[in-house]
Amino acid sequence: MERDNQLGIIILAAGKASRMGKPKALLAYKNHSFLLNTVHLAQSVNPKATITVLGHYFEQMSAYCKQYDIPYVLNAEYEKGMSTSIRCGLHQLLCQFPSLNKILILLADQPKIDPTHLSKMMYNLDNEPVKMVCTSYSGTYGVPAIFKQDYFNDLLSLEGEKGAKDLIQKQVSCKQNTVLCEEGHIDIDTPDDYNQLIQREKYSL
After folding, report:
1. Which of 51, 57, 84, 118 is 20 to 30 A away from residue 36, measured at CA?
2. What is the pLDDT confidence band of residue 18, given thresholds at 50, 70 and 90?
3. What distance, in Å, lies between the first and last C-alpha atoms of the chain?
4. Burial level of 38, CB count in 10 A (0-12/13-18/19+)?
5. Least confident of 51-60, 79-88, 160-169
6. Strand bridging mode 140-148 / 132-137
7. Is the pTM of this model over 0.85?
């Protein structure tokens, strides 16, 4: 696959993980960490650039990123909500690569999102008359989501805990806007969530 020189990817990994009690992005999953798996996922669509936004556990997370050569940036305002991490990541990417005109937002703890899902999203964005494509699951819409440049100012103006959720909900207008991932709702917030995920993986082998 050719590099998409217009695509940038933001991986969100700045949260406190207060219910987990440790950085959940570094938990082991399928021989790697959630974060490294997400980085590999991002690379599957061959973007121009990827940035991981860090906040809480910065020393531990940044050391890990350096070990695996993962580009990162510190969001000093991460406690104000996910929206600040989106703004921080987008600002960093556009400063380094001003020619980007598509931004994909990923979470570091959605283990059931796979390269096929991202490829379908990219296909819809590039081949349908839409300017945003998001993921549908459990009767709602959310990330991963990819936005064309038309929405960059909206992303840079986000506020609050919900990140891009409200923006996504407002912009869904047709089936081409969404790609279904039935297990996309699975994220890892607590030790029980993590243990259940690992057990399910064992039984599915």
Report:
1. 84
2. confident
3. 30
4. buried
5. 160-169
6. antiparallel
7. yes
Say which amino acid occupies 44. S
SS (H, E, C) 164-187: CHHHHHHHCCCHHHEEECCCCCCC
Domain span at 133: 4-204
* Residue at token pair 């993986």: 201
Helix (H, G, I), strand (E, B) or coil at 22: coil
* Total domains, the chain: 1
Q: Count of CB atoms within 10 A of residue 35's CB?
A: 26
Q: Identify whether the C-beta of residue 112 lies closer than 8 Å to the C-beta of residue 103.
A: no
Calculate the CA 88 to chain-centre distance: 13
